[in-house]
Automatic annotation (TrEMBL), chain A:
Coiled coil: none annotated. It comes from the Bacteria. This is ABC transporter ATP-binding protein. It comes from Streptomyces griseorubens. Keywords: ATP-binding, Nucleotide-binding, Transport. Transmembrane segments: none annotated. InterPro entries: AAA+_ATPase, ABC_transporter-like_ATP-bd, ABC_transporter-like_CS, ABC_Transporter_VariousFunc, P-loop_NTPase. Residues 6-230 form the ABC transporter domain. GO terms for molecular function: ATP binding.
Amino acid sequence: MTVPALEADALGKRFGRRSWALRDCSFRLPAGRVCAVVGPNGAGKSTLLALAAGLLAPTEGTVRVLGAHPAAARSRVGFVDQDKPLYPQLTVAETLRMGADLNPGHWDADTARRVVAGGDLDPDRRIRALSGGQRTRVALALALGKRPELLLLDEPMADLDPLARHELMGLLMGEAAAHGTTVVMSSHVVAELEDSCDHLLLVGGGKIRLSGDIDDLLAAHTRVTAPAGADLAAHEVVESRTTGRQLSAVIRPSGPLPDDWRTTTPSLEDLVLSYLRNPAAPALTPAPETLEAAV
Amino acid sequence: MVDYRIDRRSGVATYVQIVQQTKQAIRLGLLVPGDKLPTAREVVEATAVNPNTVLKAYRELEREGLVEARRGLGTFVRRSLGAAPADSPLRAELEDWAARARESGLEREDVAALFTAVLETHYPEQAAHPAPAHTPQGDPS
Amino acid sequence: MTAALTTPAAPAARTAGVPRQWRWLVRLHRPALIGGGTLVLLTAAALVWLGGPLTDASAAAWKAYNACGFTPRCSYDQESILLYKDVYNWTTIAVLAVPFLVAAWAGGALVGRETESGTARLAWTQGVSPARWLASRLVAPAVLTVAVTGLLAALHHWAWAAGRDRIDTATSWHDMDTFHANGTIPMGLALAGLAAGALAGLLLRRAMAALAAAAATVGVLWAAVHTAVPYLWPSVTRVSGLAEGPLGRGLLVSEGVLTPGGRAEAPCVSSSMHSCRDTLADMGATAFYRDAHPASHYWPLQLVATGILLAVAGLLTYAAFRVLRRTTGTARG
């Protein structure tokens, strides 16, 4: 299992003449992870997923999926678009039958049926008559039914009520547990993904700001409270704020910290927000060699 | 069978919650030696937590000698914890005590504080959380 | 990491079967197929009716009319003559409309709607590569288009030929609408329209815009073919005396007078008129000439025009695959 599920090298995508949706992105996602792609709207999350799914060609750099060109990995990758496109004139049952026909040899009808069954969906209903959440369910059924090794989900939970969200997230985690499927899902709500994901890609302004296993990222950062005027220069500072006589900062310590500083581990949301509030903060994307050693 | 409930706002790491709830179930006799723990898939389908979190919790329980993983079969409880099964006389006494506390007008928080204070006196400095043995990356899997 | 508890799907176990797209293509476009099929059958039935009973009735009416001579009271079946004319005109329009309908459908429903709504992306991530997806959306419709335009044009030709020498007002072979509807040009136009629809759908990613662009492309191509047709095969020149005026029948290319200085525009058409004779004499005109295509040039003209349209269709198809490859970065297949 040394082939990474997803690997980008200086990846960039430009739309039109000058607007770069994504630029100079390098990261590596080991197989078997459940990865959250987090960032504000318009940060480049959808572009990144579409590049990985082989739906867009990169303007520069490369992306490799399960060790192959995205076009060659197509049959091993599942993708759910943000808008959950489906053929409105087909019924739910027909849509699943189409999935079976379009994925010969690797269609898991039981899984697909199970995803749909959870939603109390009439199989004879037409797609155009479904609610947003029900469409999401059918789209996920199509993506899971092809039994992918890598599942790319663009804002999968946006249309779902909390109950369905919990149930479908559980189902996804079950698939990941049972088949070792790598799952990549984007969201602009960090809290939604915190418990389900073990890997993070933070995208902001078309760049990768953070990438790595969530435990490692949290361990690499410290929230410190120190007297105002404390010298942070020795460390990488993500965010620092002075209120009265107190300095509060999120840093990546590069050595022991003075005893009179109070230190805590930031929460994931805390960490993500501190990076998003400070676009100039240095990115933390471990070089491939470091990751290789860690796997 | 254990039914894990993950409280996202407790501030306790998810895998620690699974460890604690498993121990609780063993302690209460809901799980006895030889019982099978739910598979990782069953747990994550019910809780929507990351599979690796469940595996981490199970490994922690295994490290403590409470459970053992049998290849291809699942994870089984190896030994019991404490001596307070759900129907023990100690429990009956505690029930009795709790009922009296309530009758005397104590609030839930008062009872909890009282209980914790007594607990601290008799079981001083017990580590609340098992310390993580290693980072998840270092784990052979 | 989860490998301990699980068996990851073995990539080698995947059989590389070919996705079964056809039945879904048919299913997705069932309403269009039913609607289009009905129109085609109605037109075909009308053409059979036209070439058979209507032609007979109209020919009989013309015979009666001609027998009347100058008799003031004489009856003939005018209804039949008018009905023939109407049905002929409408069926001709129907045959000529097929390329526009194909283009509009290809741009709007076949490709444009899928790129607009994102279902194309759905297909591309459901085991169908973009190139295969586009191929499926071009090959079967192209075969169907050839069959339909071929059938209708053949029936039109047959119905027209049935009335050729029997109905006095039957259109000549070189009447422009009849010229197009009787041959292979509608087939070429329809195939070019199909490819134009696919390209427009991929480029514009809007169903209505692609529909309009594809139909407009067919309009432009038709106008171009219409203008170019007389020059697609060497015409026959007939020279006639000044008293006769320009002679020669068929598809006219150009006409005028021959002078010592070469060809010139004819100021008038016969020297039997006084003023004309003088003008022609002033110019030094020696004869009239007319460049035209005889009926035997019908198929050469049709086939060259169709060939050019097929080349255009091929170019548009190539462009569509190129656009698809550039956007999706599909290296192969």
